[in-house]
């Protein structure tokens, strides 16, 4: 291609050609396959560059987030393999050290903690196509673990839609994360007495609230009321075993 | 083109695009173990698996943000195929040693194959374009970077100390140069078939 061709490509993409020039250009695209190929590649590269520089910040943020998650995940994966490479005498040393540490801080280690059991996932409150800014705010804040902001959004949302069980439940979780137990428990208690799909989940999280406050007896009492058909029944049994 | 139904697993694509940590974590928990297994059974280790998975997710992210990616098959099938292809390519590149690959048909259903193929080609092109962009002269690189970052051609021109007409002409010629570099590469012709 000649220099003039590339200038023409650019003018065509930017819509800067007159009607006659445009028609001539399009005729040439149809007639000259080499011209056509070059134009398509030029266009593809233009859009590649546009994307590359426009989304640089978002793309960098994504990659660093991904890297962190990946690193943590693979470190966990690899951990047991590294242990296997230990020699026998190293085991003995490690075992002795572990035992000593275990004895001194036994109480801390033996108690299960809230973080091990709280297993809520990311939420999706907005319905496809329906654009509600406040729901979006709540969803994004919750999913990025900005629970203070999520709580604020949930509070406003519940002014409009106070009987929405989903909102009540996730607002309770956000409050639990913020250690606002009174608010969390009042929401969960009312859900646990209702008939919504969140009934059993609410009971489970009431137990987790006590767990987080280290009130193990109260936690056990609640755990025992979780019915066998609840999603979290197995987890609840596991926790009961650890607490007993 | 016939309208295909969007698969519910589109949520993984959307989640990646929004940089949603929960979704990324879920992808690792649910779909990555299978990839690790496959790579370990085929001459690789967990470091290789880590790289392949990360690269694949970045390619999916790029395609989704640049071109719209609509999943019409389970994410599992699509993602596994992509990782598998990437790993096989990697082996081809590096291995002079004997490679034993358990090639089996794991997924029927052409949607996954087709989508994985598209994403694969997209990813290869991105890599090639980036490589060629880096081969451009400094002046072109600077001008193009400024052009696409600043948007306003007038501002670009004044920041580089040239006239508007010159900056605009230079932009077309630099993309033209890049077009030639790309078209001359044998890889591009393979990809563009």
TrEMBL record, chain A:
Q: Which domain of life is it from?
A: Bacteria
Give the record's keywords alphabetically. Answer: Membrane, Transmembrane, Transmembrane helix
State which residue ranges cross the membrane: 88-106
Protein name, per record: Tetratricopeptide repeat protein
UniProtKB/TrEMBL annotation, chain B:
Q: Which UniProt keywords apply?
A: Sigma factor, Transcription, Transcription regulation
Q: Which NCBIfam families match?
A: sigma70-ECF
Its protein name is: Sigma-70 family RNA polymerase sigma factor
Span of the secretion signal? none
- Specify the RNA polymerase sigma-70 region domain's residue ranges: 28-95
Known SUPFAM superfamilies for this protein?
Sigma2 domain of RNA polymerase sigma factors (SSF88946)
Gene3D superfamilies, per this entry? 1.10.1740.10
For this chain, one GO molecular function annotation is:
sigma factor activity
Pfam families attached to this UniProt entry: Sigma70_r2
Q: Which GO terms describe its biological process?
A: DNA-templated transcription initiation
Residues spanning the membrane: none
Could you tell me which PANTHER family the record lists for this protein? RNA POLYMERASE ECF-TYPE SIGMA FACTO, RNA POLYMERASE SIGMA-70 FACTOR ECF SUBFAMILY
